[in-house]
Design a protein that fits this description.
Length: about 110
Amino acid sequence: MVARIWGLPFRCTVDRTLATIKENGYRASDLSKTRTAPFGLDEESGVRLGLVFLGTKPLRKLSRIETISGAIWAMGAEEAYYWFSKCKDAATGRRARRALRLLLAAE
């Protein structure tokens, strides 16, 4: 598991989340609060979705969440992989997530 989000960040990114799980062979109804099994996503979809979750989780401003989410989906594959590896690093992940938010949404 990469990250869990709920509330406003999830509501703002649910359209991209649903599109991603549909692209990977799941139904929209498979996404539910009671689901405990992880979704098996292809690597690039998982990286982008994980990066969206990591980047938007602490935010409360709708405009920043949408800006960051859109920018992550517009990134090239190499850039998304780079930022994902930085954001998931145990030692420097918090700083990398903040840097990503600053870069994409001028937080």
